[in-house]
Every structure is written in C-alpha cells, then in structure tokens.
Design brief:
The structure is a single chain. By secondary structure, the chain is α+β, with helices and mostly antiparallel strands. It has one domain (2-46, 53-101): Alpha-Beta Plaits (2-Layer Sandwich), CATH 3.30.70. It contains three helices and four strands; from the N terminus they run βαββααβ. The chain has helices spanning 15-32, 68-75, 78-87, and strands at residues 2-9, 36-42, 58-65, 96-101. Strands 2-3-1-4 form a four-stranded antiparallel beta sheet, with helices on one face.
C-alpha cells in the first residue's frame, strides 16, 4: 500500500476556488481509478493546541493507493492533468508530496 500526502499551498483568498477544483476531481479519481483506496482533501481544524501548525491557505490531501503503479497512472490520467492545469493560478507554490509505504 502507498500513502501520499500532498501539500497544496494556495495564494491568500484562493482556498475556496482551489477546493472547487477538488470537488470536480475527487469523484473522477474515485470512480475511474480502481487502485485508489482514499483521496481526501482536508483543511486545518483548529483545536487551539499550542503546538498545532495551522495554515489557512493550505490544503492537505490524504491519499491511499494499492500500488505505486496505481499512483503513477493517476498522475497521467486526463482528469489529473486537467486539474493541475486549472488549479495552477490558485497556487502560491508547487504542490509538494510525501510518498510512503508500510514500514512494519
């Protein structure tokens, strides 16, 4: 199993628009990509903890894939390519990813 954590830093005031693009993308990923087990864009939930790292302009996407091949296919799907093109004007920086697999 592969876990992908994508950090999507948006320009100030662009978070809502970026989430609109995810509202279109997520159903396509879940319906058209059988290797995807989970694809969930999330935003900060403020618990008021002193050690909580909050960013009002950040989307954290939690993904789970059956295999690395499934994730690679996802990157080249037409809906993924279109999404990256559409969301680009909303981004303050490039989307960064952390890709991991089961350790134990």
């Amino acid at each position: 199993m592969i876990y992908v954590c994508a950090l999507v830093k948006t320009k100030p005031g662009m978070l809502s628009r970026a989430l609109d693009f995810y509202r279109v993308l997520v159903p396509k990923v879940l319906a058209d990509e059988p290797g995807c087990l989970e694809y969930v864009p999330t935003i900060d939930f403020d618990l008021g903890l002193p050690n909580q790292n909050k960013d009002p302009d950040m989307i954290f996407v939690a993904e789970r894939w059956k295999t690395i091949e499934d994730f690679k296919l996802h990157l080249n799907m037409p809906h993924s390519i279109e999404f990256r093109s559409r969301i680009q004007p909303c981004l303050a920086e490039n989307i960064t990813v952390k890709i991991t697999h089961d350790a134990i």
